[in-house]
Amino acid sequence: MNFRHKNPEELDVNITPLVDVVFLLLIFFMVSTTFDRQSELNIELPEASGEITESEEKEIEIFIKKDGQYIVNDQVLINSKIFTLKRNLREAAGGDNDPRIIISADKKSTHQSVMRAMDAARQVGFIHITFSAVESE
Predict the structure, then answer these.
(1) Domains, the chain, ranges and CATH?
(2) Residue 26 Cα to chain centre, angstroms
(3) What's the whole-model pTM score?
(4) pLDDT at residue 88, as a whole number
(5) CA-CA to 85 of 20 to 30 Å: which in 10, 50, 97, 123?
């Protein structure tokens, strides 16, 4: 008879696979995380004072409705293509080489339609572009 107590085997927990999984999760989250893009330019936008200035130079007003329809000097354009907009800007300018362009866009109009108006004015050669706004209360 053998009455000696058997020493129980020491339990050994192998944590190597756990460390591997933790590192893989860390790498996954580092790669898949979107980081905030830091701008190199610090831009502070000006506020409108509501003062109206009168000028003697020719002005062309471009109204942009919320559905993207353009109105150049109270003339509704037949479509919203840039070619049509450039043609009407040239006609509205007459012989003036650099009139002031005033863009009045509905607050629900798309950014694309405003950019199209600015691009059309630039392609025609007009560089003095202004945006109209209402005075905040």
Answers:
(1) 59-131 (3.30.420.270)
(2) 33
(3) 0.57
(4) 92
(5) 50
